[in-house]
Amino acid sequence: MILFSDIRDFTTISEQMTPEENFAFINQYLSYMEPQIQKYGGFIDKYIGDAIMALFPNSADDAVQGAIAMLEQLKTYNSERQQRNLKAVHIGIGLHTGTLILGTVGGFGRMDGTVIGDAVNLSSRVEGLTKTYGVSFLITHQTLAPLNNPLEYDLRFIEQVISNPVASV
């Protein structure tokens, strides 16, 4: 399972801060989110600015619970921000289950371990759809299907996302 999360309106937020404040903000936010991912057997593949790409190798239930824990922890983080007269932060989380290729990418000067594949791209697109639908968390059918008890969650079905929308002429 691949999880993408992203801070809403990060550009607007960051424009009101110095570079030092930006790094402090991102690092503090990530320090709240990372333990929630790890608590449910996930690990962070990479940080992309304010975004998180995490993998949950064990089960869809772990991934969903990890995402829910992130949203719950965000409430605590926002409560602390509001005590300092700072605005609440909102995030979007997209979760998809699919086949990945794990390996090392890069050149002679820099190499990183990461995952690649259509599943990664689709997970990122699903996270992007949280903005469209005005929700914090979306999962795909491929993540819903293997859940032990889907009725445990408050689900709303929306639409089909096309994983390869580019056509050749």
Give structural attributes.
169 residues, alpha+beta, Alpha-Beta Plaits, five-stranded mixed β-sheet, 7 strands, globular
Structure description:
The protein is built from five helices and seven strands, in the order βααββαβββαβα. By secondary structure, the protein is of the alpha+beta class. It has one domain (2-152): Alpha-Beta Plaits (2-Layer Sandwich), CATH 3.30.70. The strands form two sheets. A five-stranded mixed sheet has the order 2-3-1-4-7. A two-stranded antiparallel ribbon has the order 5-6. It is globular.
Brief summary:
This protein has a single domain, classed as Alpha-Beta Plaits, CATH 3.30.70.1230. The chain is 41% helix and 22% strand. The model has no long low-confidence stretch (mean pLDDT 92).
Strand order in the largest sheet: 2-3-1-4-7
Distance between the termini: 33 Å
> Secondary-structure element sequence?
EHHEEHEEEHEH
SS strand fraction:
15-25%
Total domain count: 1
The biggest beta sheet reads: 5 strands, mixed
Query: What is the share of helical residues?
Result: 40-55%
Topology:
Elements lengths: L1 E6 L2 H5 L4 H21 L3 E6 L2 E5 L4 H24 L7 E6 L4 E6 L4 E6 L1 H16 L3 E3 L1 H4 L25
Parallel strand pairs: 4-7
Antiparallel strand pairs: 1-3, 1-4, 2-3, 5-6
Helix pairs in contact: 2-3
